[in-house]
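@channel anyone free to eyeball this complex?
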Amino acid sequence: MSIAAVSFSANGRHYSTPDRPVVVVCLDGCADEYLDAASSRGLMPNLVRMSIEGFRCMARGALPSFTNVNNSSIVTGVPPSVHGIGGNFFYDSTTGQEVMMNSARYLRAGTILAAAAKAGRRVAVVTAKEKLRDIFAHELNGIAFSSEKAGLARTETHGIGDVEQLVGKPTPPIYSGEASLYVLEAGAALLRDRRADFLYLSTTDFIQHKFDPDSGGALEFYAGVDVQLGRLLEWGAVVGITADHGMNSKQHPDGSPNVLYLETLLVENFGPGFRVILPITDPYVVHHGALGSFAAVHVPSTASIADVGRWLMDLDGVTEVHTRASAARKLELPEDRIGDLAVLSARDVVLGRTPACHDLKAIEGGLRSHGGRYEEMVPLIVSRPLRREYLRKAACDPRNFDIFDLTINGPLVPDC
Amino acid sequence: MSIAAVSFSANGRHYSTPDRPVVVVCLDGCADEYLDAASSRGLMPNLVRMSIEGFRCMARGALPSFTNVNNSSIVTGVPPSVHGIGGNFFYDSTTGQEVMMNSARYLRAGTILAAAAKAGRRVAVVTAKEKLRDIFAHELNGIAFSSEKAGLARTETHGIGDVEQLVGKPTPPIYSGEASLYVLEAGAALLRDRRADFLYLSTTDFIQHKFDPDSGGALEFYAGVDVQLGRLLEWGAVVGITADHGMNSKQHPDGSPNVLYLETLLVENFGPGFRVILPITDPYVVHHGALGSFAAVHVPSTASIADVGRWLMDLDGVTEVHTRASAARKLELPEDRIGDLAVLSARDVVLGRTPACHDLKAIEGGLRSHGGRYEEMVPLIVSRPLRREYLRKAACDPRNFDIFDLTINGPLVPDC
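replying in thread with the prediction:
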């Protein structure tokens, strides 16, 4: 079956696809250091070839530097202020409810994936975490499944019913590097069998939370990633790679987590009624104990938002405090789904609610996490060289959510 | 002559040197992308070997991300709040004078170099820019010269009188890659001839302001750097490498500079009397037209500092605004040498005074610059593996000005 070179628009951007497979990969938690450590050791020959023959730069992600936020940006091509997903959940002060945003119900922008499918591309999206599938599958006429629930995918609901046969492996455990490698293997198999020609492959950051870039666990994982990148290229795809966020160690030199318990501190100083929302919180807390470098603070009417903001900014370990208006403008967040104040912490500091809210046993092996400014910059690689116009755009302040644009519209030679 | 394993303290840190040469290199403007681009192409085999056999990470520099500030931090091991050099110059509001800080007179902390020499090491410091020599040579009993004025070095004043013979080349032009390579060549020659065993080598960022990481000019330069790193290693040195700051493109997609003229904007909105200090300004403006991503603002008594701060923070392209107190604490700046407000701009935005103050002809080829938060993170490499205790420290929030500590005290095996 030949591949259609189609055109479509999504959220104000025009996409003209080549008549070859297009694959965008989001490597969850892939700080640039991981690529450096593995490629220095000769473990990523395909990535190195892509970066030499194609294009590589550092790109700025969306804030807070969390998975849902950035994956939503990547598949829509717009910041959270437009697509509406500013974290894993938010507190709706009108209803008094904490609302999980794992559902496409909260997505305010259509996806590039759905638009590509509508234009005639055979689209497949594979994610490690089931939680992201609903957003990725939003209005999508195509294939969408997670490696976490690979064995449960059904043709009627997922566009595919034989994932384990396709990959030749059983469903992997979610807390593993395999959960991510399975995503890439499935993508390569979909290309091989010509069951899709427009793919989004999104991994999980279990490995990155657990291992620093130089450690064996990380190096082995990235060597495995590179093998799959080679297969994607072998099947003729133009491949774009980026990450949702970086990853930093967030602990004291003795290995204990470096936490500011904001709700405790605020109640001690200003009295009760504060609600601290940690939008990293999700059902997968084994990674990080729900501790990241971003918090939303809802201030009770008994306290002054300005006073609380100044007080927070004065705390050691806090690097930025934004009001709702400033967070909407400067952090590109949806104004109606954030707190009165948005707080970012330092490279090695995480924000918590109260000690009782966090199970530190989950992170006894050490805390590596993300969410703040120091996990905002991520690598971006396209397997083909870019046209001059795109080189100029990419030289300004490229975003990780430009990756579909760069991969589809950017390359100098549409095909070869 | 054998090399003394000596111990000394500087600014509260203890240093126990090995009985082998110690060399710390500051690669001016070396964003990590430069190392990636060159090493991916096989042009930096020595750097790659160092990072595999030794230690590599990303380190946080001092703000503003300028050359004087960070070089002063590196040679003292402390942030600007302690050593006093918060920029190339400051406005002294008590005298009404703009004061250049190229002189050691403004340094409030002793250097590691002077302390090492006093303890018995034969110290040499080589800088590309003559402007830095006075700070580096502060109370130093040893060799100190610049490649810019290599031919003018005299034994009585510089501790060496035959630089051109030593290197075997004439003084290079300052606006060249050669000005930096000459620094490293001189360092290797000093080791070869056993004229020094404790070296600080600091290059200039002409290449980085001019070329992006993938371009031929940059790749050729880094290949040359790597040859010299190989020579330093060959002479038995433990080598530590870091950068003073990164480098980003600061222009619109059409190639024109992306400038916010703060003084013009402030006077239009609040009336006269504002003084905007751009601490990147120095005698070497060909690089950057005195445009960087940091500004200090002195507010006249006719305006409210808080109002002006809020108004500045609301400008597109401004990312952070700090009061004097907040800049002292959060940016680690010397409180008496900064303005009423400190302003940082976005990855692709520079801050200017008025259009008339800047000669944009100097940057007609495109503007790459630094000074802000997005040039704060830099690579750090030590040629030897670190001890567990240092690995733990380096895993938290390592700073580029920890480089002497990491290079001297960090290695697992003091010698081999």
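from a first look: The CA atoms of residues 87 and 279 of chain A lie 5 Å apart.
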